[in-house]
Design a protein that fits this description.
- This protein has 2 domains: about 160 residues, 3-Layer(aba) Sandwich (Rossmann fold); about 180 residues, Glycogen Phosphorylase B (Rossmann fold).
- It has 15 helices and 13 strands.
- Helix 9 links the parallel strand 8 and strand 9.
- The two termini are about 30 Å apart.
């Protein structure tokens, strides 16, 4: 093995969450990261699920090596597709180029090709996903039976796993991943970028808040994400509307876009301004909008580990979280009655009660401080530590293997 540890990353596209991790990992002494991207979504166009054509306006490809691989038709794909197949991986994923490979899932043929290449070529494979038993509950019995048979074998192909939370760790253990293969990490959010943006632009944050609030004592609740069915945006709207009838300070804002945009706007038109649709906000301004909020709400009915919750906490927002989101637990992003509240998904009355509970200034202030404390242990540094621990393990295993091979050669020579 080279003195420098070469980590190959196979990922669908550059994301605002993982690109800063590759950059920070690449800054570590003795570590070189090269990402092989299967498409250039977010670079030449926006997220189609958000209904936006705007590329992300923050740097996602600087500070580490990366390459956009062509698909089987000789072109670089411009969107994520479950059929992505990038044959260039065959020449990239070799022992001469990488010492280990990181992979997030088995979703595309290219991911499955990467697994095959690692197994055939003796390259250690690191994996991480955000799946949970909670979100798998939506599948019918026949699919669950198939998963129970296939997943232990599939997950066993990875040499090392990074878990992303309490429920994810339970999920990995459920499908047969031994504890000694798992290192605790998190799904990363770039705390430095959020804190710098918030600290450097207080006037703009105040301006945003002034535009969104009725008056100085408005309590502002935010929904951020795709306007799609599984994110359950109408539960947020209904709960805010009901809570406003009890406490007139309460108002909701929605940031995002997607296929339900027209239906949402129709619903909001029937209200009296209790909830307003801000629409799409690009990455550079998103931290400022989080900072303008008082509380963040995730009402999803299916959501393995929504990173928008961590983004809100980076700005000091306590969270209200549906129990169908996978990032609550004793050691996870949201700890019930500590830095947020967890309510039963589908129960609008329970969500309304949670909204009213966090309208209390003292409770909200305590939860906000706890949110910052919890998130400070779940930022890029948490995930960086997990990667560095695994890199150390792999280097030790390779070194031990070399020593064993050398000892065997010496015994043969002396025989």
């Amino acid at each position: 093995m080279q003195e420098t540890f070469r980590l190959g990353v196979v990922f669908t596209h550059p994301t605002q969450h993982h690109a800063p991790l590759w950059r920070k990992l690449n800054e570590q002494p003795g570590v070189l990261v090269k990402a092989f991207y299967l498409c250039n979504e977010n670079q030449v166009g926006g997220d189609r699920h958000l209904g936006s054509s705007e590329p992300w306006d923050v740097d996602l490809v600087g500070g580490y090596e990366c390459e956009f691989l062509k698909t089987w038709n000789g072109k670089i794909a411009n969107k994520i597709d479950k059929g992505l197949f990038n044959p260039g991986l065959i020449s990239r994923l070799t022992q001469q180029n990488v010492d280990a490979v990181f992979l997030p899932s088995f979703f595309t043929p290219s991911y499955r090709l990467a697994v095959l290449l690692c197994k055939l070529r003796g390259i250690p494979l690191i994996m991480q996903n955000d799946a949970t038993i909670i979100t798998d509950d939506r599948y019918d019995r026949s699919r669950k039976v198939v998963m129970s048979v296939l997943y232990p074998s599939m997950f066993g192909l990875a040499d090392h796993w990074i878990s992303s939370g309490d429920h994810n760790e339970i999920y990995l253990r459920h499908y047969g991943v031994p504890l000694e293969k798992i290192v605790r990490g998190c799904y990363p959010v770039d705390r430095d970028r959020f804190e710098k943006a918030i600290a450097s632009q207080p006037e703009e944050i105040q301006q945003i808040r002034s535009q969104l609030c009725w008056h100085d004592d408005t309590v502002l609740y935010g929904f951020v994400g795709k306007y799609i069915d599984r994110k359950n945006p109408f539960e947020f709207i209904d709960a805010i509307s009901k809570a406003h009838q009890i406490d007139s300070r309460i108002r909701g804002i929605m940031i995002g876009g997607g296929e339900l945009k027209s239906a949402i706007e129709e619903r909001l038109a029937s209200l009296n301004g209790e909830v307003v649709n801000v629409g799409f906000v690009n990455q550079s301004k998103l931290p400022l909008h989080y900072a303008a909020l008082d509380v963040f709400v995730s009402s999803s009915r299916i959501d393995p580990h929504p990173l928008v919750v961590s983004e809100g906490m980076a700005a000091g927002c306590p969270a209200i979280l549906s129990d169908r989101c996978g990032n609550w637990g004793y050691r996870d992003t949201v700890v019930h009655r500590h830095n947020g509240l967890v309510y039963p998904s589908g129960d609008v009355n329970a969500l309304t009660e949670a909204v009213l509970a966090l309208a209390d200034d003292n409770t909200r202030s305590i939860y906000s401080q706890h949110a910052k404390e919890v998130f400070s242990k779940q930022d890029l540094n948490c995930e960086l530590k997990a990667f560095l621990e695994l890199i150390g393990r792999i280097k030790q295993q390779i070194h031990t293997g070399i020593n064993v091979a050398q000892s065997s050669s010496e015994v043969s020579a002396n025989a």
